Amino acid sequence: MSGWFSSAPSSAATPADANAGEDHVSDGSKLKTFIGILKKFIGVSDLAAVRFSLPSQLLEPTPNLEYWNYLDSPSAFAAIGTADEPVDRMLEVLRFWFTKDLKYAKGKPCKPYNSCLGEFFRCNWETEDDAPRIDTSALRKSPSGSSSSSMKSAKSAIPAGLGSSDPRAASTVSVTQSAANPTKPVRISYLTEQTSHHPPVSAFYIDCPEKGLHAKGFDQITAKFTGTSIKVMPGEHNLGIFITVDRRDHETYQLTHPAAHLGGILTGALSVSVGDMCYITCPETKLKAILRYYNDGWLGRTTNKMEGIIFRYNPENDNKTQIKDVPVEDILIRLGGAWKEKIVFTIGNKPLESHPPERQITIIDVAPLSVAPKVLPPVEKQLPNESLQLWSEVTKAIHAKQFGKATTVKQELEEAQREKAREREKKGETWTPVFFEQATDKAGKPSLTEKGREVLRRAQAGNWDMDGIL
């Protein structure tokens, strides 16, 4: 979701902004300032709807639209739809799901810049088509009570690595590339635009025509400060990520976001934990996944534990929201592990822990992974309302630790946005997105305009020119 919280710009500086001119700010000072601001909002139902502005020394020098893209590991996305069996394609979607937030698993949370109305961001990823194919057919044919010899025979039919019986084989279904076996890169293009200011909503579109894949959705959050943590939840227009596999009769998977918690505010050790349910559904295959995340363990220690199932469901009567509600005979796969570390799965409906280690297959191990770099448009090809250009002077000032200057430039940008809003109101004009048909949509599925489609077509060709589009 779009940041651990997002807010609209303020019409006046907060008291904290008055101190933003100090160029050398300690971590302790940052934390004290941050907590002081948040205390004013205890009990506020939605921080994302409140008009206030954080001082620049508390911000990550990154635009929100650049920071949030779900393609932290693009090769996992490119592998969706490869498998022939529906249950294996659902596993491919889940493999992508567990990689989409590597920034949280591998780093610390941050607060990027708030997005301005009409701001947009575009990029490519050049990723290796290297994710091992998921094929569980041999294991599904092998009964749970099989002898070691028949088990070995079943495993020999699985591509190397996927069915490793060694629990230490961390990358059994990894998304890392082997230097000894390079493959032709796959290009994935991305376009996102801030389509609404009240409420703050952005639309995004991910395109990978070479693999017959695209994904889209609206990003919107609600956030509440409880006094010890910030709870972030999807807003009413954020119904998740919609992934369509064109080459599989346009199968569409809806991946809903769970609520997340930003903790460690009082200690300064910020971390993200998840303690909620999320769902992945595919009406075409009649398969659904339920994932349950556990927030804390014994004495409040975060465990990052997750358990889940894949099961047959009825799209016309989708009423199963808890794992315990699903009939055992409908369960095809069980999953478990720590979402910041390693997730394993087993075939069949028996409890995961009842399976010996050699039948617990690693679907993803986060340990060897890192956030993939983006391919960005050259500076000379970027427009003034393109994220990296729009915020460039603020970013330069923050990197130089010139926080007073950064805050001044940031406030000038915010005031310019307010002036544009006043002019539209005076003229009776309604804001219309450029690259997307809808500013918001209760169905959660944005559609591209012809200009949006042309931007992505050019990006796929490695052409960053905007001539003739705007």
Number of strands: 16
N/C terminus separation: 29 Å
Runs with pLDDT <50, length 5+?
Answer: 1-24, 145-181
Mean pLDDT: 83
**What fraction, in percent, of the residue positions are helical?**
10-25%
User: Helix-strand pattern, N to C?
Assistant: HHHHHEHHEEEEEEEEEEEEEEEHHHH
Strand order of the largest sheet: 1-2-3-4-7-8-11-12-13-14-15-16
Tell me the overall shape: globular
Q: Helical stretch count?
A: 11
Question: Into which percentage range does the β-strand content fall?
Answer: 15-25%
Gyration radius over CA? 23 Å
Classify the secondary structure makeup into a structural class: alpha+beta
**Biggest β-sheet: count, sense, barrel?**
12 strands, antiparallel
Biased composition (Basic and acidic residues): 415-429, 439-454
Protein name: Oxysterol-binding protein
Region (Disordered): 1-26, 134-178, 415-454
Family: Belongs to the OSBP family.
Write a structural description.
- The chain has 470 residues and is α+β, with helices and mostly antiparallel strands.
- 21% of the residues lie in helices and 22% in strands.
- It has helices at residues 27-39, 64-67, 74-78, 86-97, 102-106, 137-141, 148-156, 387-390, 392-399, 403-427, 450-460, and strands at 120-128, 185-196, 201-208, 213-219, 221-225, 230-234, 241-245, 251-255, 260-263, 271-274, 277-282, 287-293, 305-312, 331-338, 342-347, 361-365.
- Strands 1-2-3-4-7-8-11-12-13-14-15-16 form a 12-stranded antiparallel beta sheet, sandwiched between helices.
- Strand 14 (331-338) and strand 15 form a beta hairpin.
- Residues 1-19, 137-157, 169-178 have a biased composition (Low complexity).
- Residues 415-429, 439-454 have a biased composition (Basic and acidic residues).
- InterPro entries: OSBP_sf, Oxysterol-bd, Oxysterol-bd_CS.
